[in-house]
Design goal:
- The chain is α+β, with helices and mostly antiparallel strands.
- 41% of the residues lie in helices and 14% in strands.
- It has a domain at 3-29 and 138-324.
- The chain has 13 helices and 9 strands.
Length: 332
């Protein structure tokens, strides 16, 4: 694992950066956790024991925990099918390849440690993650509230993620089973190229670029809920079934569930996201990465380093590690 990732805290959630005048301390985050090994009802019972509240059982596939210490929580089988008979058939055929999913409402960042402790409790009760079986490909999603800055941070964060996605994937590769699933596809290089050259973009420009080059929600970072919230009329090229509703959030889908892995934690995955936002909030670093990307991918470039290795070196040499409170090893 590259030096920067190796230095990320496993037991401490690093704060998000402020974006200009837009403060981040009060921004909320919803968490979605996929796992196997427990039934919906078993998982719901554990949540009620941990956080209190009242359980409302729709059926064996979906339970709501209402009025808990962390608000309303949904516990369900994660099946993207519309008919109950189809859900039943899929559950019988696929068994525990279909994960149970816990979905929180938007929470204060200060509640993330409680979610992390819940994951430990679920694991102790028998919940397992992606590494438990070859065919598993379970993920964790962060629904991170947008800064209240009119959309400037959305564009900057999209640029930061585009320029750093290869690095995120190289630094901590996804499980093979998850890589082949169509839910965390890398952003197309045509979109990355546009974002590397973006100057003065507004959310509407980003929406048009997504419509033209990445008309799907099935990426490691799904921007469609945020773009549907800010500029729905600019998403005409997006298929209707990929527009699941407007929300003022980044939908970060890249993390995977690795329950029981001592070198992994919810905080670690959150801190990887925090790094992307810190890059977005640093105009000099962001522009340096964009300039370097253009040079690296120029037709006559003789660059020998992988782009991901170049990103690691540039971030390590910047002020970002000290600003975030991490102490990376020296990168050559």
């Amino acid at each position: 694992m590259p030096a920067l990732h190796a230095q990320l805290p496993l037991d401490r959630f690093l704060p998000l950066p402020d974006h200009g005048a837009a403060r981040s301390a009060a921004r909320r985050v919803g968490v979605e956790i996929e796992f196997a090994g427990l039934s919906v009802k078993q998982a719901a019972t554990i949540l009620r024991h941990e956080w209190g509240g009242e359980l409302t059982e729709r059926d064996a596939r979906e339970v709501m925990l209402r009025k808990s210490a962390l608000g309303d929580i949904k516990i369900e089988l994660d099946i993207a099918l519309k008919k109950e008979w189809a859900e039943d058939l899929a559950a019988q055929m696929l068994g525990d390849l279909i994960p149970v999913e816990v979905v929180t409402e938007p929470l204060p960042q200060s509640d993330l440690p409680r979610v992390a402790r819940l994951m430990q409790t679920l694991q102790a009760a028998g919940a397992v993650g992606t590494q438990a079986r070859l065919a598993y490909g379970f993920g964790i999603h962060f629904n991170v509230e947008l800064p209240d800055d009119g959309g400037a941070a959305l564009v900057a964060t999209a640029r930061a993620f585009a320029l750093c996605e290869d690095w995120l994937r190289m630094a901590d590769p996804l499980d093979p089973a998850r890589r082949v699933l169509p839910f965390v596809t890398p952003w197309p290089q045509t979109l990355v190229a546009y974002l590397a050259r973006a100057q003065g973009w507004e959310p509407r420009d980003l929406a048009r670029a997504m419509s033209a080059h990445a008309p799907s929600r099935h990426f490691g970072l799904d921007l469609l809920p945020a773009l549907q919230h800010l500029c729905p009329d600019a998403l005409e090229g997006i298929p209707e079934d990929h527009l699941k509703g407007a929300r003022p959030t980044f939908h970060y889908r890249l993390p995977e569930t690795r329950l029981g892995d001592r070198k992994w934690s919810l905080a670690y995955e959150w801190n990887r996201w925090s790094m992307i936002e810190h890059i977005a909030a640093d105009p000099d670093l962001l522009e340096s990465l964009a300039v370097e990307w253009r040079a690296h991918h120029a037709p006559l470039s003789d660059e020998k380093l992988l782009w991901a290795e170049r990103v690691e070196a540039m971030i390590a040499a910047s002020r970002l590690p000290s600003r975030m409170g991490i102490m990376p090893q020296r990168v050559a």
